[in-house]
Specification:
Number of helices: 18
Shape: elongated
Radius of gyration: 35 Å
Strand order of the largest sheet: 8-11-12-6-13-14
Helix content: 55-70%
Number of strands: 14
Amino acid sequence: MSRRRVVFKLVSTLVHSPYRWRMLATLLLSLLILGIELWIGIQLASFLGRIVDTLTQRDAAGFRTALLGLSGSIASFFVCISAYVYFSSHLQMQARTALTYPWLRDWLDGEAVYRLEREQQIDNPDQRIAEDLKLFVTHSLGLLMGAANAFGGVFAYSTQLWSQGGELGFEFAGRIWTISGYLFWIALIYSIVDFVLTRRIAQPQIGLNMQQQHFEADFRFGMAQVREHAEQVALYRGAGTEFRRLTACFEKVRQNWWRLIAYQLGLNVYRSAISNVSTFLIFLLLGPRVLAGVLTVGAMTTLQSLYGQTLSKLNWFAVSWTDIVAWLAVVNRLAEFDRAVNATPRGGIEVDPPRGPVLMLRGLSLTLPNGTALSTIGDITIETGQRWLVRGPSGVGKSTLLRAIAGLWPHGRGRIQPPQARVLFLPQKSYLPWDTLKVALAYPHSAESLDDDACRLALEDCRLPRLVSRLHESDRWSMRLSLGEQQRMAFARALLHKPDFLFLDEATSALDLDTERHLYQLLCERLPQTVLVSVAHRTTLDPFHTHALELGSDHPARTQPVEAAL
């Protein structure tokens, strides 16, 4: 998706947001405040000129009157600035909220979050929502309000500059030439030259800004990864390795920052020089008229202020080019994110709409994303009351089969018709949100959907008695509980949710045989109508299943009945 299309999508999201009327009211109020600021700026220039004239004329009464007017204008100006900062900040949060919710939904809906991680199409998608959307709103509103202020200021200040600046007369080719509003034309030409030079100097910053955001995001993600796996790092004595890895990430941040700052330094030096030249130019133009008695010192002061304000408004593009560069870099990252989220998954497995309480696989074969074959499944129908055990050597696609059934793996051929039923997947390491224990048990449903006593009973039954009293305690459970405890938590979740189809992917790999047998016994007794599909290597699970599916890389999958003990 191009920059133009993603900007259109972002603006369209704002226009159709539930917050649109509040945002519009806040925007109009902010623009009104900017208009008042421009009017006050003209008054400041006028009062400043009067003060200078009264001083040169030694007019004490006039000086006091002009000083009082200047003080009132300055006070009003500060009030306007404070009000503008408040309302513009309020508008930024409204706009960020309006964008964040739908972009979060796009990321989480349709398993895009898993697909992006699986295919590694873009880096740090989470930070593109958290950081880049914020930067887009900040830069966009800053540029929008700056442009409005600039165009309004050009009209307001140039009108005064044109009317008060007079004409420039000179002789050329035997004729007397006059240029009306010459100060405005000089300011316009000056600003155009300034913009062209600024753009040429700042152009390389677009790519460098984008790289800087990429490297900063990688550095933050690396540190977050270490924090998330602190125990494993400590057990491996990997602090030194992580230090080298993180410093390598930071070195990219530092090197790119030096390149970026070098261009920024050149731009700042140029901006300082161009500003001083502008000050020199106004004295060069107006000084002779003051010395000739055509202008008073106060009038020159007023014209100098009006010229400076007009030039600053005309120079908005040049002065804001660094912000424009940063905005373009943010838009590029958001365009990459949007393109990746909305990309059509590549693969040949077709998933049909659910029909009835039956899982059907037709002509199914699994491959890696690069086309390398994993296994051939063929035709299988799994019906209510059956319990299937999926076996085979490592690397033949046992876990991948469950991902395909869940609609998360498109690589391969064939058709899958998932059941029209309540489905629950228990991976080897189940997700436990950072919240109360009850929220973790109820996930992905709300905690209110479960009864406290039922939760306590499930924990007891799954041999987690020490957690019974901590049902409403918030913690990082994935860090506090061992892998075996987390797997028992997953079984408690299954008992509470009572799914029609339960898929278990090495869900008891960290448990001893007695606990494994106890938990499967619970599933068979408490959920007798639930279809179980277990991926496992242990033969100790055979008694709890009625069918076996043997996968292999060198032969089609084989099915056979299992003599269940229950």
